[in-house]
């Protein structure tokens, strides 16, 4: 009989209950006990839901207060010294929060740990900080407590923990100059593995049958030393005596499949959604005695699964392997919304094409039942519904737009090249008249409760169009006057009218659909509601021009027009899977090109096209990079085709490692790029220095993801460090990212200090 299980479930709750509880606790509105109660209720609800769907095992350890990597880092006691953690005391929850966001209700504020993207997803993890000869210990008991919690509720559990090699690969430290690949990090295994063994032994003592150890780095290009380390590591972990399911996902194993050959684990999970063609390679090295878990339900997108296709892939294996064949989603369901049943405003046709986390569990159950000797009538009926829904989507007339398709063909002949930067910057400086170390922000200003209420009431019909526009104009004027008062050089309108930097544009473009509760976690309490691209993209009308033109009318200083770039809209949406992603991205670029031209014609002299997801879209395997970078760069340049030399094009990228793609970033040819550098202490600038990046750069001087307000002296020191690497004439001063999630008090204090830092730099 085929076994079904899940690799992980969304933590936030269908109504974002975890987000609200976290923010209430951080603000002092709720107690730590209130927060714990919310977490306990959410875990119980989600375990019950998964068990009711027929899973043979429910995951435990996938719940996290902020991030699952950070949870594991604190369990290991790997707390940086600045957080003043005693080696003899348990790591408190507030210490975890200070590591994640710089402060908590208790404890001394400190610089938060670096945050970056989890492989090629839009989920963020907190980077472990590694030091030579680091010691480890079991410093938190959350995993064991949650196992007992689930068992007390009657569940058959499968704990989920990060693998030791993946955890080390993701970690950073000043002593490890070669980055992720540095073999010196493997020396830390001597101290790390005994703690892993202790964890596994304690799990076994709790009567657990299986433990899932995630090693997604097996989908990456691994140096030989890291490949060889798997045999050593898992031989030692096997001594704990508990069956291990080694889980990989997000990519084809390729040459790393040999790592599995003879590996002392009792089971292996692979992702057959991202890489269906790896099955034969894996079968060649996994023995008949080992469990083979197949990820057949897409854990990263929202479309219904072709269950007939999935069934055909595995039906012969089901007969041969029996209960040694496990079925699962491709990866954790963390990356999709919780429940389609919470969507009451989607039209019936589109709704019939979709599947969220809860529905994916049903799909898994139907697939497993269809492989049984006598499938139930329920699963047969469900399979027929799937077939009708898939065929209906394929035949739907709302997917295709003839004008978009015609424009896409014609776009191949558009000249993407502008005049050389050295010529453009002179004309831009003549027009803009900016001082040395010009100051700006990334775009958004705080989204106050008043703004959110106005937008909510307008969308519900309780507030008229004219009243809503008046409210937004009032907010724009407030933002403009504030920026003028403190002395910023290039202003923004603050984006009060925008709910989200991707969702806002999707609502104004054809080919998009939207949910009311389709939230997914990005990091900590930050949740996003990705739009769904179901058809060809088109721009029926201007999207930002009126707001930007109004803001510009209020001031003599330049106001940036703010757009989200084509790659980022693509990456941060649930994208149609019936055509190449490249094609959808080009359609987005053409729509944005129309907006850029209209902004320029409206007198907007500075236009920012944000691409924070540019590196996120990079394939995990280097062999696939060149093709992606070719079309991603081309899409950015396509969006700026035809702009005048004196129009200054900005872009923004955050939380990215740029060293290995710096040539592609330069090829985008933005006049100014703003980047995240404060959490990494300007380390990212090394790539721009070594490459001799020719255009202007704004290295972020303070971390907007933390409520801490930096000192002026700190920002001056960061910029002086930047000026040692890059020509001061090419440097801008700005925050790391947009200010949407911050409060006004901290925003005002931080920006006043930032302007003071720029002024100090001009006179030194």
UniProtKB/TrEMBL annotation:
<feature type="binding site">
    <location>
        <position position="654"/>
    </location>
    <ligand>
        <name>Zn(2+) 1</name>
    </ligand>
</feature>
<feature type="binding site">
    <location>
        <position position="652"/>
    </location>
    <ligand>
        <name>Zn(2+)</name>
    </ligand>
</feature>
<feature type="binding site">
    <location>
        <position position="737"/>
    </location>
    <ligand>
        <name>Zn(2+) 1</name>
    </ligand>
</feature>
<feature type="binding site">
    <location>
        <position position="117"/>
    </location>
    <ligand>
        <name>5-methyltetrahydropteroyltri-L-glutamate</name>
    </ligand>
</feature>
<feature type="binding site">
    <location>
        <position position="122"/>
    </location>
    <ligand>
        <name>5-methyltetrahydropteroyltri-L-glutamate</name>
    </ligand>
</feature>
<feature type="binding site">
    <location>
        <position position="572"/>
    </location>
    <ligand>
        <name>5-methyltetrahydropteroyltri-L-glutamate</name>
    </ligand>
</feature>
<keyword id="KW-0862">Zinc</keyword>
<feature type="binding site">
    <location>
        <position position="676"/>
    </location>
    <ligand>
        <name>Zn(2+) 1</name>
    </ligand>
</feature>
<feature type="binding site">
    <location>
        <position position="610"/>
    </location>
    <ligand>
        <name>L-homocysteine</name>
    </ligand>
</feature>
<feature type="binding site">
    <location>
        <position position="495"/>
    </location>
    <ligand>
        <name>L-homocysteine</name>
    </ligand>
</feature>
<keyword id="KW-0677">Repeat</keyword>
<comment type="function">
    <text>Catalyzes the transfer of a methyl group from 5-methyltetrahydrofolate to homocysteine resulting in methionine formation.</text>
</comment>
<comment type="similarity">
    <text>Belongs to the vitamin-B12 independent methionine synthase family.</text>
</comment>
<feature type="binding site">
    <location>
        <position position="652"/>
    </location>
    <ligand>
        <name>Zn(2+) 1</name>
    </ligand>
</feature>
<keyword id="KW-0489">Methyltransferase</keyword>
<dbReference type="GO" id="GO:0032259">
    <property type="term" value="P:methylation"/>
</dbReference>
<feature type="binding site">
    <location>
        <begin position="442"/>
        <end position="444"/>
    </location>
    <ligand>
        <name>L-homocysteine</name>
    </ligand>
</feature>
<feature type="binding site">
    <location>
        <position position="495"/>
    </location>
    <ligand>
        <name>L-methionine</name>
    </ligand>
</feature>
<dbReference type="GO" id="GO:0003871">
    <property type="term" value="F:5-methyltetrahydropteroyltriglutamate-homocysteine S-methyltransferase activity"/>
</dbReference>
<dbReference type="Pfam" id="PF08267">
    <property type="entry name" value="Meth_synt_1"/>
</dbReference>
<feature type="binding site">
    <location>
        <position position="610"/>
    </location>
    <ligand>
        <name>L-methionine</name>
    </ligand>
</feature>
<dbReference type="InterPro" id="IPR006276">
    <property type="entry name" value="Cobalamin-indep_Met_synthase"/>
</dbReference>
<dbReference type="GO" id="GO:0071265">
    <property type="term" value="P:L-methionine biosynthetic process"/>
</dbReference>
<keyword id="KW-0479">Metal-binding</keyword>
<dbReference type="Pfam" id="PF01717">
    <property type="entry name" value="Meth_synt_2"/>
</dbReference>
<dbReference type="GO" id="GO:0008270">
    <property type="term" value="F:zinc ion binding"/>
</dbReference>
<feature type="binding site">
    <location>
        <position position="737"/>
    </location>
    <ligand>
        <name>Zn(2+)</name>
    </ligand>
</feature>
<protein>
    <recommendedName>
        <fullName>5-methyltetrahydropteroyltriglutamate--homocysteine methyltransferase</fullName>
        <ecNumber>2.1.1.14</ecNumber>
    </recommendedName>
</protein>
<dbReference type="InterPro" id="IPR013215">
    <property type="entry name" value="Cbl-indep_Met_Synth_N"/>
</dbReference>
<feature type="domain" description="Cobalamin-independent methionine synthase MetE C-terminal/archaeal">
    <location>
        <begin position="438"/>
        <end position="759"/>
    </location>
</feature>
<keyword id="KW-0808">Transferase</keyword>
<dbReference type="InterPro" id="IPR038071">
    <property type="entry name" value="UROD/MetE-like_sf"/>
</dbReference>
<feature type="binding site">
    <location>
        <position position="19"/>
    </location>
    <ligand>
        <name>5-methyltetrahydropteroyltri-L-glutamate</name>
    </ligand>
</feature>
<feature type="active site" description="Proton donor">
    <location>
        <position position="705"/>
    </location>
</feature>
<dbReference type="InterPro" id="IPR002629">
    <property type="entry name" value="Met_Synth_C/arc"/>
</dbReference>
<feature type="binding site">
    <location>
        <position position="676"/>
    </location>
    <ligand>
        <name>Zn(2+)</name>
    </ligand>
</feature>
<feature type="binding site">
    <location>
        <begin position="16"/>
        <end position="19"/>
    </location>
    <ligand>
        <name>5-methyltetrahydropteroyltri-L-glutamate</name>
    </ligand>
</feature>
<feature type="binding site">
    <location>
        <position position="654"/>
    </location>
    <ligand>
        <name>Zn(2+)</name>
    </ligand>
</feature>
<feature type="binding site">
    <location>
        <begin position="526"/>
        <end position="527"/>
    </location>
    <ligand>
        <name>5-methyltetrahydropteroyltri-L-glutamate</name>
    </ligand>
</feature>
<comment type="pathway">
    <text>Amino-acid biosynthesis; L-methionine biosynthesis via de novo pathway; L-methionine from L-homocysteine (MetE route): step 1/1.</text>
</comment>
<keyword id="KW-0486">Methionine biosynthesis</keyword>
<keyword id="KW-0028">Amino-acid biosynthesis</keyword>
